[in-house]
Model the fold of this input.
Amino acid sequence: MTLEICIAEREDWPVLNQLYADMNGESPLAIASAEEIFTQITQTPNYYIYLARLNQQPVGTFSLTYLPTMMHRGYHKFAVLDAVTVISPMRGQGIGSQMVKRAIQLSTEAGCYKVTLSSNLKRHRAHQFYESLGFEQHGWSFKCVVQPHNTRNF
Done:
């Protein structure tokens, strides 16, 4: 099974909205909200959303962000892998593995020295999946939830 994996285009946004909703078992965002968010994403430097297709049908997505760093001599960029999802009927068939391997390849080609990701502590199967692809737990992940006063809630 060979996937076609390319950067998502504007016309792919409704499909991405459906994929993200399927990832969490939620309803999709309102079209206007989704378009506004995707417009902001396309205006963010080095932030790319990829769409995976099998036989021209969308089956998954992931995003990559390349970030500069001054922390390590000789290495000046790292990647953040996010929003990896495969449509529920196709999970467990190797699609996610192909997508993550492609994300690692793209990050290497972009000159990144590492790829990072975050996963909920409760997602044990996801952790095993990422470990099977060469990821290892490194440190702790922390978050601080904030609600800025000048943004609306999508």
Summary: The longest strand covers residues 57-72. The first helix runs from residue 13 to 24. The chain has a mean pLDDT of 89.
